[in-house]
Specification:
Length: 387
């Protein structure tokens, strides 16, 4: 009979919350010298998404941790000089290039069963590879067209082939040009020291479980496995070898594991006050967000307008290590418009005002307007705090 390992520590819910905040870069002084690349290495991945409100989500992630960072710095960190690569992790993500070898298990799985169900004409795959080898980096359009004449998902042979090559690891994205992927051969874009797929599946998964545990600080089996979309049974097979330690967290009601380094020192330092992208790894998993912060959040961009409660791209507001409200922002000229605001009481007003002012300055707006509030009685106080 196998017995569960004895927990290394018993954490209060508050201790777990602070450990998670520090691990995600929101508690303590940020490493500004490491910049955006440092944020990416610490998180292990940054999720990509097509929605752009204040900025695209991959720009909002370093902004939330570092404050005002220019778009050139973000672009350079993600797509210049072989520092990162795009791949399927939690979703479509930018990942540190050092993690390339550890996704060999997923590349092998995709070769066995391609992720997309599109049919591919004979010879189309080799044609795209040959064209990239001969002509250098190209968009899908430059490779022969991204779409047929049907719906958005009606990809051309060239698009199907190059996306399949991306899944297989034969091709990588080396640039985003007007949000279009620019593809090149992995053999040219990935450093030779990393360009190998000789790690077995167990070693790949062990590394990703360890990295997820470090990035989360503390988490349940589901939290940690979901970070890179690892299967639960894969997590079970490697968690002990990954070096994470079992802990109990008051009120969680589920077994948890922690990064041992996160338990070695008490989380201290300054809290960040900021707007959070719904795709931020601090809050992207709803059950974890509810468990840690007591805050229920749902991205409503894909919800019919008449059924939205908080707005199209409502961004939670983080202040003092708590989620204290939501803002659904938009830009109209040089004005940041808070189309809808909800606050966790009057004490949240100064923090939300601060987050809005900073975000406005970051995106080049010199004014903030409040359009609608869930608690109209707080509108005057917020407008006054905005100055």
């Amino acid at each position: 009979m196998t017995t569960a390992p004895r927990p290394a520590a018993e954490l209060s819910a508050d201790e777990a919350r602070r450990i998670a905040l520090r691990a995600q870069g929101f508690l303590g002084a940020p490493d500004r010298r490491a910049g955006v690349r440092g944020v990416l290495r610490g998180l292990g991945q940054v999720q990509l998404d097509t929605i752009s409100v204040l900025a695209r989500s991959h720009e909002l992630i370093p902004y939330a941790r570092l404050g005002a960072v220019g778009r050139p710095a973000v672009e350079e960190a993600y797509w210049t000089g072989a520092h990162a690569f795009e791949y399927w992790s939690h979703a479509a993500c930018v990942l540190p290039v050092e993690e390339w070898p550890h996704f060999a298990f997923r590349r092998r799985a995709y070769r066995d069963r391609p992720h997309w169900g599109h049919e591919l004409s004979a010879g189309a795959y080799d044609k795209v590879i040959d064209q990239l080898r001969a002509e250098g980096p190209r968009t899908a359009t430059e490779l022969g067209g991204a779409k047929n004449k049907g719906e958005w998902w009606d990809w051309s042979d060239a698009k199907i082939a190059v996306e399949r090559a991306l899944m297989y690891g034969e091709v990588v994205v080396v640039e985003r040009r007007g949000w279009k992927r620019v593809y090149d051969l992995a053999e040219r874009a990935i450093p030779q020291a990393l360009l190998h797929d000789d790690l077995d599946d167990a070693e790949c998964v062990r590394r990703l479980v360890r990295q997820a545990g470090e990035a989360l600080g503390v988490g349940t089996r589901a939290d940690i496995a979901d970070y890179h979309r690892i299967k639960g049974e894969q997590f079970d097979a490697v968690v002990e070898a990954a070096g994470l330690v079992p802990v109990t967290v008051a009120g969680w009601g589920k077994p948890a594991w922690a990064d041992p380094a996160a338990l070695a020192a008490e989380p201290r330092g300054r809290h960040r006050t900021t707007l959070l992208s719904p795709f931020d790894s601090l809050i992207w998993e709803r059950a974890r967000t509810e468990r840690i912060f007591g805050f229920t959040h749902r991205l409503e961009a894909y919800v019919p307008k008449q059924k939205r409660i908080h707005g199209y791209f409502a961004m939670p507001v983080l202040a003092g290590g708590r989620l204290v409200g939501r803002v659904d922002p938009a830009r109209e000229g040089r004005t940041l418009v808070a189309k809808q605001v909800s606050l966790d009481g009057p004490k949240a007003v100064p923090a939300v005002a601060r987050a809005l002012r900073e975000a406005a300055a970051w995106v080049g707006c010199d004014a903030v307007a409040v359009e609608r509030m869930d608690q109209p009685e707080l509108a005057k106080a917020l407008v006054t705090a905005l100055g």
